[in-house]
Amino acid sequence: MQTETTTAPATAPTPSGPRRRGPAAAVLIAETRLFLREPGNLFWIFAFPSVLLVILGFIPAFREAQDDLGGRRVIDLYVPISILLAMITAAVQAMPPVLTAYRERGILRRMSVTPVRPSALLSAQILLHGAACLASALLVTAVGRIAYGVALPEQLPGYLLALLLAVAAALTLGSMICAVSRTAKAATAFGTGAYLVMMFSAGVWLPVQAMPDALRRIVEITPFGAASQALEQAASGSWPGWIHLGILALWTVVLGIAAARLFRWQ
Q1: 206 has a pLDDT exceeding 70
Q2: Angle formed by the axes of helices 223-235 and 242-262, to 10°?
Q3: Backbone φ and ψ of 203, nearest 5°
Q4: What is the mean pLDDT of residues 182-207?
Q5: What is d(CA 122, CA 231) in angstroms, rounded to the nearest whole number?
Q6: Is the pLDDT of residue 6 over 60?
Q7: Where is region (Disordered) located (predicted)?
Q8: Residue 32 domain-assigned (yes or no)
Q9: 10 Å Cβ neighbour count for 56?
């Protein structure tokens, strides 16, 4: 980039040295600025899950302990659900149209003949949306605690592990949508369909823990159904079920490999 006019270092940089890191850092800074200029994405990823939690908390029945939920309140269950909603929004609604638009307009192809590799742009988008998901999770947790007295996760290491695996699974799903979508319009269409399915499997309309047994077993093999169960278990003080963590890891690996093989830069 333009900062390369400074005094040359005493020794030539290796391929992994500053000159390779510099363009990637510049891409990340530029993409961060563009990301922050999109108030719509910022609202739906960062703010809306907390807004939804506040609205649901206005329902008196949601603030009362339920015997069929093991003495928990519905609002307690909706904290991890709201966290997952931010991930779904980032992965299938926000990220795919951006990357497919870059490819559709030839930006990725032109980047391939510059020191900035197209993979730097993909990495920057994944990093930004992952950070937004984690920031949203922190805000939802704080809102639930302050507004409705929702207990903080009792099994914090297990909760963080489930959270990171859920983010990874979500973003690999988003990468898969980018890989199979030739245009931004196609990415939006695929993302909308996936959004509705993932919202159901995460328990937005009906918490997974309150679903009939047969339906719950089906939902639990989906990435967000497994994530909902793992987060709820950790929040209640238990270590997340290894089956649920394994399902999240498996989805991440399978979707990641498929996206890497199908993704085209032009």
Answers
A1: yes
A2: 140
A3: 95, 20
A4: 90
A5: 28
A6: no
A7: 1-22
A8: yes
A9: 16
State whether residue 116 is helix, strand or coil.
coil
Q: Is residue 18 part of a domain?
A: no
pLDDT recorded at residue 129:
94
Sign of CA dihedral 90, 92, 95, 98: negative
Locate 186 and state its tokens.
Answer: 């196609």
Spell out the residues 6+ positions from residue 113 whose beta carbon is closer than 8 angstroms to its own: none
The torsion angle over the Cα atoms of residues 230, 235, 238 and 240, rounded to 10 degrees, is 20
Using alpha carbons, select from 207, 190, 187, 205 the residue that is nearest to residue 102: 187
Count of structural domains within the chain = 1
Residue type, 221: I
User: pLDDT value at position 2?
Assistant: 40
**What's phi and psi for 73, nearest 5 deg?**
-100, 155
* Alpha-carbon span 199 to 265, nearest angstrom: 30
List, in order, residues 6 or more apart from 144 with CB less than 8 Å away: 53, 75, 76, 78, 79, 82, 150
Which two structure tokens, joined as six digits, stand for 191? 């993302």
DSSP string across 209-230:
GGS-HHHHHHHTTSHHHHHHHH
The two three-digit tokens of residue 75, written as one number = 């609002």
Strongest mean pLDDT among 104-108, 182-186, 245-249: 245-249
Q: Is residue 2 part of a domain?
A: no
In a domain, 193, yes or no: yes
Q: Which of 168, 143, 150 is nearest to 224 (CA)?
A: 168
What is the extent of the structural domain holding 207?
24-262
Q: State pLDDT tens for residues 219-234.
A: 999 999 999 999 999 9
Question: Phi and psi at residue 65, in whole multiples of 5°?
Answer: -65, 140
**CA–CA separation, 81 and 75 (whole Å):** 10
